[in-house]
Design a protein that fits this description.
Helix content: 25-40%
Protein name: Sepiapterin reductase
Order of helices and strands: EHEHEEHEHEHEHEHEHHHEEEH
Number of helices: 11
Main location: cytoplasm
Largest sheet: 7 strands, parallel
Distance between the termini: 30 Å
InterPro entries: Biopterin_syn/organic_redct, NAD(P)-bd_dom_sf, SDR_fam
Oligomer: single chain
Organism: Opisthorchis felineus
CATH superfamily of the largest domain: NAD(P)-binding Rossmann-like Domain
Strand order of the largest sheet: 6-5-4-7-8-9-12
Number of domains: 2
CATH architecture of the largest domain: 3-Layer(aba) Sandwich
Subcellular location: Cytoplasm
């Protein structure tokens, strides 16, 4: 069996999951780790599920600080020590990471970001603008449509987007604001089309095949939902319908309308990516948060299904990690489970909550890895998004553009390992 290995250096004076977790979170003296930051947010008992360990480590396995605890990992390539069964290192492309050509080079880019008024949505807009306007490989132009209910905050995002443009960049940047602000709860196809129309007007459908484009739709807007009731207590049809219309149905309708213009079914279309800002809650249940967990899981699966129905469209499920946003603070204050509130409070106090700008930077960096293959017979309908990753050390992300879940911590650890190899 192919294995990967990583190492933990850990004192022996922690007797249970709780004390070990507290040590990991507070980074007490004597603690040192080469493991990804993910471990700092996990109880010991969660390591098997989160990191695909062959067997979870036991407390008794923790060794003196002068020794190493060796953990065999399946499909874990962040700190690779290749086994004999792996293919030749000649297949490794890590040393060529810095040679990846930007897929938007000299293209006219059309971007829609929902929930762009604050938090991760705003940070994503700024980091994306920085990436698209940076040489070499800058875009020719950017039309960015911002969507949210708070128009004043959207105008602030707009101003910051212009300031995020790379110095002396030749890229033309145009920022649009959807007016009136789209009410996700009362979403309809005509309402979604009206919100997107300013962008459509700049890109007549009969001109799309004549232009070099790179198009992007980002579903960031979301609400946390109820954090008081158990799943079996959520029986109000009105409340449930309101939540899922905003957090599931609206992204589905917006996606359909966006694709109908920029990638009509059965036609050759420019590269197009649909991004879903996902969450660990899409794959793990959290107490008293059935709204959020179910909504995130459904959106995650919607994108995977979209990839099956529309294989020429790239989809990207990105989990940004715990962010210092209004949503996190809402959980910190309003969650009915005192243990969950304490967890959130400790996470924030010990520096485990990320700034949106950092997670957005990592999210945007992976967009460079989405390239379309070449059809030898010139048939554009056979083009497929392909992931530019190392077939040895990043093999598990070869199909990321079909909806494979990418977590911030995993992406960061890959980045750090690559930087170490390139140094």
């Amino acid at each position: 069996m192919n294995s990967r290995w990583t190492f933990v250096l850990q004192p022996t004076n922690y007797s249970d999951d709780r004390s070990l977790t507290e040590a990991l979170m507070s980074k007490q003296p004597g603690y040192k780790s080469l493991c990804p930051p993910t471990l700092r947010c996990c109880r010991l008992s969660q390591w098997k599920r989160r990191l695909s360990l062959e067997a979870p480590p036991k407390i008794t396995d923790l060794v003196d600080t002068s020794e190493l605890l060796e953990l065999p990992l399946k499909n874990w390539s962040l700190y690779p020590q290749r086994s004999a069964q792996l293919s030749s290192m000649s297949d490794c492309s890590c040393q060529r990471e810095d040679q990846i050509k930007s897929p938007w080079a000299n293209s006219d880019c059309n971007v829609v970001v929902t929930g762009a008024s604050r938090g991760f949505g705003r940070a994503f807009c700024l980091k994306l603008t920085e990436a698209l306007t940076k040489e070499p490989g800058a875009a020719r132009s950017i039309n960015m449509l911002l969507m949210a209910r708070d128009l004043e905050a959207l105008n602030q995002t707009k101003d910051q987007v212009f300031m995020s443009k790379a110095p002396n960049s030749p890229t033309k940047v145009n920022v649009l604001i959807s007016r009136p602000g789209l009410d996700m709860v009362n979403i309809s196809e005509p309402a979604a089309r009206a919100a997107l129309q300013p962008l459509f007007d700049l890109n007549p459908i009969d001109q799309l095949e004549k232009e070099t484009q790179w198009n992007l739709l980002v579903h960031n807007a979301a609400t946390i939902g109820g954090v008081v009731l158990r799943a079996d207590e959520r029986t109000s049809v009105e409340s449930l319908e309101k939540y899922y219309r905003a957090n599931l149905i609206a992204p589905m309708i917006i996606t359909g309308v966006f694709l109908s213009h920029f990638a009509p079914f059965g036609s050759v279309h420019p590269p197009l990516i649909v991004v879903n800002v996902s969450s660990l809650a899409a794959v793990e249940p959290f107490a008293l948060m059935s709204d959020y967990c179910v909504g995130k899981a459904a959106r995650h699966m919607y994108l995977k299904t979209l990839s099956t129905d529309r294989p020429t469209v790239a989809v990207y499920n990105y989990s940004p990690g715990p962010l210092d946003t209004d949503m996190f603070n809402e959980m910190l204050v309003g969650h009915a489970d005192p243990n969950r509130r304490a967890w959130a409070e400790n996470l924030k106090k010990n520096g485990g909550v990320l700034m949106p700008e950092e997670s957005a930077r990592v999210c945007v960096s992976w967009l460079r890895r989405c390239h379309y293959n070449c059809s030898c017979d010139g048939d554009g309908m056979k083009l497929r998004p392909e992931s530019v990753v190392c077939p040895i050390h990043q093999k598990q992300y070869m199909d990321i553009w079909t909806g494979t879940h990418l977590d911030y911590y995993d992406a960061l650890a890959i980045e750090q390992a690559l930087n170490k190899q390139l140094a």
